[in-house]
Amino acid sequence: MKRKCDQCERPATTHSVEIIKGQKIEKHLCDLHAAEQGLTLKATQQPINELLDSLVKIHSGNATKPAKEPVCEHCNTSYKQFREQSLLGCPGCYAAFETQLSSLLERAHEGATHHVGKAPRRAGMSEQRQQQLMHLRKRLGEAVTVEDYELAARLRDEIHKVENNN
């Protein structure tokens, strides 16, 4: 059952509880009477990403002048759309957003701008050893497929030897 306002017949939308000198006082008020008593807050329903964008702009000093948003000339994807969806529209987007993407790619690849393989730099593995491991793993998979378990065991041991030979 919905409560009615304590001061009129409208439905109560604000409920407050106060404890004064150990006594509990409940108030059930409509919007009008709640506003009169200063119990309502005007809530703005702004999406969190917009709120964060405006906060970042204020702290970076770009709040007053909006910068022209780069747009890919091939697929018309804007950089804002890329940030929201984390998807580029076409290969032309890499050229259109080159300045913005370069810092993202450097962070993702630990300072590198070109992909050099699966193992991160911090693993200390040379490209030659990576190639050797890939070749051994491929041979291991083939040996297991044809059920040559002796060869598979030798390849497994060799892989362990190469991996632990830092």
Widest sheet: strand ordering? 1-2
**What is the element string, with H for helices and E for strands?**
EEHHHHHHH
Mean pLDDT: 79
Q: Report strand %.
A: 5-15%
**What are the low-pLDDT stretches, counting only 5+ consecutive residues below 50?**
none
Helical stretch tally: 7
User: What percentage of residues falls in helices of 4 or more residues?
Assistant: 40-55%
Rg, alpha carbons: 32 Å
Question: How would you characterize the largest beta sheet?
Answer: 2 strands, antiparallel
Distance between the termini: 72 Å
Quickly give the structural class: mainly alpha
Number of domains: 3
Textual characterization of the structure:
A hairpin with a 2-residue loop joins β1 and β2. Helices cover about 45% and strands about 10% of the residues. The chain has 7 helices and 2 strands, in the order ββααααααα. It has helices at about 30-35, 50-60, 80-85, 90-95, 100-110, 125-145, 150-165, and strands spanning about 15-20, 25-30. By secondary structure, it is mostly helical. The chain has 3 domains: about 1-40, no CATH class; about 70-115, no CATH class; about 120-165. The chain has a two-stranded antiparallel sheet with strand order 1-2. The mean pLDDT is about 80. α6 packs antiparallel against α7 (about 150-165).
